[in-house]
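Researcher: Here's a chain I'd like modeled. Treat it as a single chain, no partners, no ligands.
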Amino acid sequence: MYAMPPLLTIPQAASYSGLSAYALRRLCADGTLRTVKSGTRTYIVRASLDALIGLDQSQHQQQ
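Model: Modeled as a single isolated chain. Structure tokens:
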């Protein structure tokens, strides 16, 4: 198994979290999730997504 990168695209974050892409975009737009913009792409900071869905770093590293 491989480690998830610290930045996730919307489709990666949807697959990882089980949330819809639409819901993730809304959470990004309202500032709930931290994001990084690169050109036209939006990346979600995985640590903020983990905090939202209730994972801490020690749980994630064990998976």
